[in-house]
Design goal:
- A hairpin with a 3-residue loop joins β1 and β2.
- A 4-stranded mixed sheet has the order 3-4-5-6.
- Helices cover 42% and strands 19% of the residues.
- The chain is α/β, with parallel strands linked by helices.
- It is elongated.
- It has 10 helices and 9 strands.
- The relative contact order is 0.13.
- The two termini are 19 Å apart.
- It binds adenosine-5'-diphosphate.
- Adenosine-5'-diphosphate (ADP) binds next to β5, α8 and β8.
Amino acid sequence: MVIIQLTKRQEEIITIVKNQEPITGELIAESLQVTRAALRSDLVVLTMLGILDAKPKVGYFYIGQSQALKAANPFQETRVSDVMGVPLTVHQDISVYDVIVHIFMEDAGCAFIVDEQDYLCGVVSRKDLLKTSIGSNDLTKVPVGMIMTRMPNIATVEAGASLFTAAERLVTRQVDSLPVVQQDKSQAGKFKVVGKLSKTILSKLFLEIRE
Ligand code: ADP
C-alpha cells in the first residue's frame, strides 16, 4: 500500500475544508493568510489524491483520506481549472510592438487576442512576433489582428476538462499553450478566455507531484 505523508499545510487545508465545505480556494487562502497562488500546488495534490473534490464556481469538498489511498491515478481527478494560469489577453487592434512589450512585462509565452466584445478571436506566439519583426515593418503600425492565428483555428480547452484532454490537445495541435475558455451560452462559437493551460504549467505540475 502507498503511504502518503501529508504536509502540515495540507493537513490544515483538510481541516478547513472539512469544517466549511463547500469553500473556495480564495477563502481557504484567506483563512491561512497566504495567497491563492501559494496554495495552488497543495490544492492540486489534495484533489489529485482524491482527498478533496473541486467543483467549478462552488468550491472544495472533503471526500476522505481512506479513499485517497485507493486513488490509482491522481492525474485522472484533476481538472484544467485546478491548475490553469492567468492568461495574457490583448485587443486585436493594439500594435505588434505593444504586444511584444506586454509579453516581456508579464513574462508570457504567447498572447490571446480578443475582439471588441472580449471574445477570443486569435493567438500570437513569440515566433509569430519574431517573424513580423524581421520584415521591414514599423511594428507600432501593424495591428496584432493582422498577424495572429485566427478563430476558428484556435485549439482551446474548457475549465472542466481533464488534464489528459489538455495534454493531448497540446501535443496533437503542436502548440505551447491553450486558452481555457467558457462558451457564451447565447452565441455559438463565441468564447470568453478564463485562463491558460501551457506545457510549462503541466511540466511544473509533474515535478510538484514527484516532490
Ligand atoms: P512558437 O511559435 O513559439 O513555436 P507555438 O508552438 O505555441 O509557439 O505556436 C506555433 C503556431 O501556432 C503560431 O503560429 C501560433 O500563432 C499558433 N498557435 C499558438 N497557440 C495556438 C492555439 N492554442 N491554437 C492554434 N494555434 C496556436
